[in-house]
Amino acid sequence: MRRWGWLLCCWLLAGCVSLSAGGKPERPHEAAVKQTEAKPLPKDIHLVALGDSLTEGVGDGERKGGYVGRLVPLLSAEDGVRTVTVANFGKRGRRIAELEPVIHAHQAELGRADMILITIGGNDVMNVVRSHFLDLSRQRFQQAMEIFADRLDHLLISLRTINPDAVIVLVGLYNPFSTTLPNIPEINDVITEWNKASQAVLSRYDRTIFVDIQDIFIDRDELLHRDEFHPNAAGYEQMAMRVHEALDQQKEWWVGSLLQ
After folding, report:
1. Cα dihedral 227→230→234→238 (10° resolution)
2. Residue 214 near residue 172 (C-beta atoms within 8 A)
3. What is the DSSP letter of 8?
4. Predicted TM-score (pTM) of this structure
5. Distant-in-sequence, close-in-space partners of 133: CB < 8 Å, separation ≥ 6
6. pLDDT, tens digit (0-9, with 9 covering 90-100), for 113-131
7. Which helix (H) or strand (E) is 3 found in, with range?
8. 115 near 76, Cβ under 8 Å?
């Protein structure tokens, strides 16, 4: 009898049968499956960047690709992400009216994008300043802002038609005019209202994120390039960190979707 008891103990210790916390038998391969299911499988993220000189990275003396290039290693470090590839279609001087043809020209890239990053609007504001420098008024900015918001809405419709699932990130405007236009103190209010209008448009669409960067550049000339308009390397670093923080708050949209 003792011999049979000793054999039974050896059999149990060999791992043929293990008991779970609830007392039910659990086979070894079942435990391995559960462990695999709980662990994220590494995936590739395809990022498409659209917009103006901020997307292009103008002013980045380190030539690291502006905020887009600096965002890549931050995303790559996330659990569940294997690689991050980028298609950057940013171009200096671009206004929102010129962005629709870019979207149609790159539908294939946008269609397979996991994230779409956009910077647009700074040149639209600058166009108001240049066109009405001698008779600037809040009303002129208001009219331009309403046109911008309407075009932004149409852009989002186009993007969602091409890609219903990608996370769309719009980076807001900041005020680079504090040094060049010191006689227009209302410009900060104009930028704030412009950002609010953009955020309101994005709120109508799922899986969209508005990133406010206005506060980063307030009284921070050391973050601007020598042209006093574009960010420098340090400014782009701050932008990338802010975008990453915003994405981190909605991690289930892009990291969560990578789990199988």
Report:
1. 160
2. yes
3. H
4. 0.82
5. none
6. 999 999 999 999 999 988 8
7. helix 2-13
8. no
Instruction: Provide CB contacts within 8 A for 182, sequence distance 6+.
Output: none
**CA-CA-CA-CA torsion sign (104, 166, 123, 56):** negative
Instruction: Supply the pLDDT for residue 224.
Output: 94
Q: Which two tokens stand for residue 258?
A: 């990578």
Burial-class residue 74 by CB neighbours within 10 Å (0-12, 13-18, 19+): middle
Amino acid symbol at 242: R
* Angstrom distance (rounded) from CA 156 to CA 169: 11
- pLDDT score recorded for residue 129: 83
Residue pLDDT, tens place only, 55-80: 999 999 999 999 999 999 999 999 88
CA pair distance 138, 61, nearest whole angstrom: 35
Give the side-chain half-sphere CA count within 13 A for 223.
18
pLDDT in the model for residue 14: 45
Task: Give the containing element (helix H, strand E) for 152.
Answer: helix 138-162
Bridge-based pairing of strands 25-26 and 18-19 is antiparallel
Burial (0-12, 13-18, 19+ Cβ within 10 Å), 122: buried
- Taking the CA atoms of 193, 92, 235 and 130 in sequence, report the sign of the dihedral they define: negative
Q: Is there a contact between 184 and 126 (Cβ–Cβ < 8 Å)? A: no
Cβ–Cβ under 8 Å, residues 243 and 171:
yes
